[in-house]
Amino acid sequence: MDTNFLANFIAIVETGSIAEAARRVDISPTALAQQVKALEKELGVTLTVRAGRSAAPTAAGHRLALHAKSLLRDMSQLRETVLSPQQNSEFRLGTINTPLQAFIPDALSLLTQRNRRLNVFIKAGHAGQLLEDLKQGEVDAAIIPHPQFELPKSLVWHELCTEPLVLLTPPRLSSLEPHELLSTQPFIRYDRRHWGGRLAERYLREAGLVPHERFELSSLVTIAIMVDRGLGVALIPDAMLPLPPGLKLAKLQLPMPFEARRIGIVWRRSSPLSDIANELTECTIKAVSALRQRS
Predict the structure, then answer these.
(1) Of 118, 127, 155, 270, whose CA is between 20 and 30 Å from 208?
(2) Which residues of the chain are under the pLDDT cut of 50?
(3) Is residue 148 located within the same domain as residue 98?
(4) What is the predicted pLDDT for the residue at 242?
(5) pLDDT tens digit string along 185-212?
(6) Number of separate domains in the chain
């Protein structure tokens, strides 16, 4: 369907006359009448009723004119978006909380310096839900731990950093063996709905350890504060978190080799915003490196 035909038909509805509409759109009345006939043939309905020199729209013609106005506005906006290099871009980023509290603000600072007209919308959530949001097109990219399964080939994955599991304990207990602490001390569990929490659960299972569980929560910052307060020990990924000042904590390496939590950025291979996702990847790697140098 020719959008010019639709625009000219709207002129007929607004003027009530094919002759007047033809003058407005600068074509002959015969050509305009032929356009109306072409629309009627394509849609299978009568669009106008002639009465002398006037042309009144039928009920179907009224409905077409109403929806055609909206369609033409959308087409105009689409054309401007495609043709204008100055058009603002929107990028929807999903992320788990730990990178959001650590290195994502610095990465976004670098990214928006490069792209002054870029608008970034951030959605925080669980890794599993964010991965589903990505597959469904609800977000353009997600910063999440790599899941315990292979990602579909339709997705692009770039690793940003690794976070080995560590035992977080008050300094007064740091001389004791980690497995002894996990067996004897109250245990603050990282939420098993998170993939990092599942990693910790798998370590305990493979090491044959059954801790005295007291708490389970999803905030790594809060877990660190609780360990400082003497509420227990915690098995968590060694994330680059900005902790409150004054906390007294010890990080113990685990005696049994185990995989680290791998944080990365993932997006759809077919995404029209792949260039921005690649730029965000570069900026995030720089932000992670700078944060490590400062800590």
Answers:
(1) 127
(2) 83, 86
(3) yes
(4) 80
(5) 999 999 988 888 999 999 999 999 999 9
(6) 3
**CA–CA dist 27, 25 (Å, integer):** 6
d(CA 251, CA 166): 6
Q: Are residues 246 and 171 in the same domain?
A: yes
pLDDT, position 30: 85
Q: Which residues of 214-243 are buried (b: 16+ CB within 10 A; e: fewer)?
A: eeeebebbebbebbbeebbbbbbbbbbbee
pLDDT, position 183: 95
Domain extent for 138: 89-162+262-294
Domain boundary among 83, 108, 134: 83
Q: What is the pTM of this model?
A: 0.65
CATH for 169: 3.40.190.10
Cα–Cα distance measured from residue 207 to residue 214, given in angstroms and rounded to the nearest whole number: 20
